[in-house]
Write the C-alpha cells for this entry.
Amino acid sequence: MQAETIDHIRFTTISPDMIKKMSVAKLIVPDTYNEDGYPIDGGLVDQRLGVIDPGLKCKTCGGRAKTCPGHFGHIELVRPVIHPEFAKTIYLLLQSTCFSCKRLLLTDIQVKELHPAVKTFVVAEDLEETAAVDITSLTSNMSDQDNRMILVKKLKSVKKCPHCGEAQHKVKLERPTFFYIDSNKLKPDEIRDWLSKVPDADLKHLGIDPTATRPEWFVLTTLFVPPVNVRPSITLESGERSEDDLTHKLVDIMRINQRLEQDIDAGAPQIIIDDLWELLQYQVTTYFNNETPGVPVARHRSTRPLKTLAQRLKGKEGRLRYNLSGKRVNFSARTVISSDASLSINQVGIPRKIADNLTIPIYVTIWNKDEAKKLLENKEYPLVINVIMPDGTRKRVGETNREDLIKGLVPGQILERQLIDGDIALFNRQPTLHRLSVMAHTIKVLPGRTLRLHVSVAFPYNADFDGDEMNLHIPQSLEAQAEARYLMQPKDQVLSPRDGRPVLFTEEDEIIGAYMLTRDDAFFEKDDATRMLASVGVYELPKPAKGGVYSGKAIFSKLLPEGLSFEAKTQDGKTIIKNGELESGVIDEKMIGGGGGTLLMKIYDQYGADVEMNFLLNLTKLALHVTAKIGMTISIKDYYNSDEINKDREGIVKEVESKANDILERYKQGKLERLPSYTIKETLELITMAQLEEARHMAESVLKKASTIDNRAFLVTKVKARGNILNYVQTSMLLGQQSIRGRRPNRGYSGRILPYFKRNDKSAAAKGFIESCFFDGLSPTEFYMHAMGARDSAMTKSLVTAVSGYLQRRLINAMQDFYVGKDLSVRDAGGALIETIYGGDGIDPTKEMVVEKEK
Amino acid sequence: MSKFEDSKVVPGEAVGTVAAQSIGEPGTQMVLRSFHSAGISSVITTKGLPRIIEIVDARKKPKAPVMEIRLEKGIEKKYEKVREIWRMVEEVMTSSLISSFDEDLKAGTLVLHLEKEKMAFYEITGKTVASKLSKKEGVEVSQIDSETIKIKYMGKTTQATRTAFVNILNSPVIGIRGIIKASIQQADDSSFYITTSGSNMEEVMKIEGVDKWHLYSNDIFEVLKVYGIEAARNLIAHELSDVIAEEGFTVSFRHIALVADAMTHTGGIRSVGRHGVAGEKESVFARAAYEETVKHFTNASVFGERDTLKGVAENILIGKQIGLGTGRIKLAVKKDDLKKIKPKKGD
C-alpha cells in the first residue's frame, strides 16, 4: 500500500545560496495587496509564491488554489542579523575558537584526548542493515551533552591560542542576540566573518557536522519566506482582508529593511543606522520566536501577541502535538451511551442514524460479485452510498445512476455500504488511560439515539451512564478489520494486562443476586426455578430438594461448565464446587466480582474465552432475576437505629473523647512520649487524631454485630456489592473525625475554628469531630467541619489528576518504542537492549496469574 | 503444547506502552478512589503518587531517606550488642544532650549543663563529649564535673563567637552524619534490626556487626554509589512496587521492572522525562513531539542529525504504520500460491 516510503529525514541549516536557489521570487515591496485587492508583484503575497484565492493562477506552476503546493521566496537583508535560535551555538563557537587565527583553542593532542570513543553501538535488526550503518555517524557524533560541556569548560580557560600564540579576549553574550568582546560590541557582520573562517576540521571536533551546516549561516543575510499557503489571509464579512501573523511580521521586517537601505544609501549617521539595524534584529528575532527571553513580545494591533514560527510548532496546541501526533479522522461517531443487558458483551448497539451515515468498504471481487450486485440493488436501508472506481474516482449512488452502476459493476471496484449488524467497530471512551479503553465490538443496529453497551463492559472503559459519551470508529481496511476482530474484542481482553485479573465481571445487583441465590437457605418454587433457568436458556430442572422446592445452589450449578472443580474461602466458610456442582458455600464478590474474579479466571483458564463469556452473561441474567425476586431495595428504615445502638454510640463518643482527654492530660504533664521524627506537639495531634478516628471502627463493630442481611443497606456492604461499611456507619451511626490535609482542622479564627467555640477549646467537637450521622443530620458546626473536609478532598483530587496525567504522559513517552523481539528480549526503537528477556521469564502479563497457579 | 509455551509473550508486543499504562492508570485512580469517602481523614494519603514521581524523576535526594540495618548472624538476637551498634548509628547533637547552657560572649565562655537522663539514654559520659568537642579548632574545653563542661573560644567579633557557639551546640557528638533518628525494631523471628530516618550507607557499612548483604536504603543514588547499578535497578523496582502495593493496587512486577530497566539500562540512572529517557531518544521528531520542540530542531540542524523514523512517535507523525505489534510483521505470499487461487480467465 505504501508506494513511497521515507527512509530517513536529515536536519541541516540552509545556506544563503541554497535559499536563493530554492526561492522563486525576491521580495521587495513591504506590502500585500493593492487598492484593487490584487496581489502586488514583489510583495508578500506575490503570485509566484502560490495562490490562495480561487480564480487566480500560480505564476510559478500554473496551479490553482487547491493544486498549487506553494513556493518559497526570499528577502535580502541589507545588513546581516543573528538567527536568535542559534545565538547559543554562536556563543559556543566564539568562545572556543581563536580570536585571531579562528582555529579551535586546542592542540591536536588535546583534541584526541577529548574525542569520545564510539559511544553508542547501534545494534541493527538484521545483518544487511549492519553493513549499511554509516561509519561516520558512529564516530564523529559528539552530540552528547556532557562531553561538550567538558570541552567548553576547558576552552574557556585557554588564555593563549595554541596555534598562533595570540592572547585571547573574553566574549560575552547578552541575551538574546548581542555579543561583546572585551566590552566592545561585536556586530553581526564581524561575527559572520569570524565564523566563516573556522575550518571544517575544527567544527567536527565540536560535534558540528560541516556537511550539514556552516556556522556563518547562523548569521542571516537572506531570509527565507514561506509560501502564502503557510500564512493564508482571511477575508472578513466586511470584505476586509485580515493577514496572518507571519505576514504581518514579514511586512515589519521588510519595512525596516527598506528604511535601513535608504538610510545607508543616503549616508545617514552611524548611530541611526545602528539603531535601525538593531530594530531589524528585533523584528527577525520575534519572527522566529516571539517568546524569546529578554525580548519584548511583538503584538498585533489588538495587543494580542503574534503567533510566529516557534509558537506554531510548540506545545499542546502546536503543529507537532496538535496536528501531527494527533489527527482527525473520518468514519467515526460519538454520542451518549446507555446500557442494554440483552446485548452480548462483544456487541455495541448503534442508532440507525449512525448506521445510515457511516460506511464500510466492500471490495468487489469475482467471488462476491453477486452479493455486491444485490447490495447495490438495495433501495432502502443497507444502501451502497458510493462506488469507488479502480482509478480512484468516487461516484455517489442515486436513483438516476444506480442502473448504470449495477451494469458497470466489475471486480476491483469498491462499494461503500451502510453499516449492518455484524460489522466491526472500535469503541473508545476518553480518557484513554489503558489499552482496554479501546476495544472492538460487533455492531447491532438498534432503534433509539444512543450507543448501547453491556453493563459489564463499562468497567474497563470506566464508563457510567450518567451522560457519558463514547466514540465509535469503523476500521476501513480488511487488515484493520481482521486485527480488530481477532485481537481487540472484549472476549479477547478478559484479563487485564496490568495484573492478569479479569476486567469483565459482575457488579452490584448481580453480586447480591448471586449471593442470595447460593445461600444455604435459598429455595425456590418450581415455577420460579423454571422461569429463572429459562431466562438463561436452560430448559431442564435440577433435582428437587425436600418438599419439591429447588435449592439455589442447584440452580446455580446449571450454569457451571461440566466437570468444573473449584474451592475458595469466603467470609462465612468455604465454597466447594465439584464436578460442575456447587456443593457448599456461597458465591461472593471475590469469585465473580472485581475483587479477583477467581472463579471467572478458573473457567477462563480451563474452558477458554467463549465459555467464560457465556457463563458471565448467563450469571448476570440469572442473578438479576434473583435480585428482582427477593425484592432488593434499600429504604430509610435500613438506617434507623434502635435506642440501644444509639446508646452504644453515645458510649463510643464518650469513650474516645475521654481517651483523647487522657492524652491531652499526659501531654500537659510532659509524660507523653515523642514519636520518632515528630515534635512533641505533632505527636499529640497524631495520637489524638488516631484515637478519635478509632470511634468509627468501634461503631463499625457495633453495627456489624447488630445488623443482619435483612437490612439491605448492610447487605450491600457485606457482600461488597456497593460501597463499604464506612458509608453505612456514617449514615446511621456517626461521621467521625474530619480532616484537612491529613490533620484535624486547625485554621480559622485565632485559637478556634469557628466563633461558636471558645478560644483554645480542646474538645473533640471544636476540632472537627462529628458525633452525628447523616440519618440524624449534622449540627451547624458539624456541617461546617464536614464541608471543610469535603472541599479539601475535592481540591486534592483535582490536583492529583493533573499530576498523574503528566506522569502517565512521561512514562508513555519514555517507553512507547519498547517491543519484544523474536528472542523475547525487550528493545527500543534503535535496537538497544532494555531487558534480555521480558519480565525475567518472557511471560505475558495476562497469562501470568494462570501460570502462577500451575505451580 | 505446554501451558508455559502458550503463556509466552508474543514477539512484537508493545510492552513499553503496556507497562506505562499499567503504572499510569492506577495513578489516576489513586485519586478517584477516595472520592466516595470524601472528608474522611484515614483515606487521604500523599505518600503514594508523590513518591512514585520522586523515583521516576530520579531525584538526587529523596524527601525522606530511610535505612534498614540488619545485623550479622550471631548478634542479631542479642539486644545488648544491637544496642551498641544502634548507639554508633544515630547522630546525636550536643544540644540534645544538655538541659541548658550559659554563654558569655564577652568573655568567650560557654558552659554546658549536661542532662543526666539523656546522657544515660545514649550511654555517653561527659568525658566523651568533652573530648569530642576539644577536637574543634581553637576551642579550649575543660570539664568542671561530670555534668558540666566549660568551653572557651574567642572569636574576632562577638558575632563570630556566637556563631562558633551555635556550631558547637549543633555539632554531632556520636553517630553517623545524616542519620537523624534510629530505632531498634524486632522482627517476627525475634531478631533485632535498626531502622533509621536519614541515610548514609557508606558509613554504616563500616560498623562492625552490620550485615552488609542486607543493608537497605531507599536513597537510589546512594545505592548506586555503594552497591552499583544492578542494586539501584532492583531498588527502583522494589520501591515502586511497594508504593503501588501500599495504595492497594496490584500491578504485575514485570511492568515495574521494565520502568526500572528503562531508567538504568545505560549503566547510569536516567529520569523518565525530558532530561532523561524521553529526552535522550535517538529520533529528533520523537524528542520534538514531546517537549522543547524548537530546541531539538535547532540542535538537530547544527549537528546534522538524521532521523531514521523507526520509533512510534515518528511514524505517527509521517502517517506510516508503526513498527510495533502487528505492524512489526509482514505477510508474504509465494508467487506459486497466488497462482493457485487465481480464477480461470473469462470468468
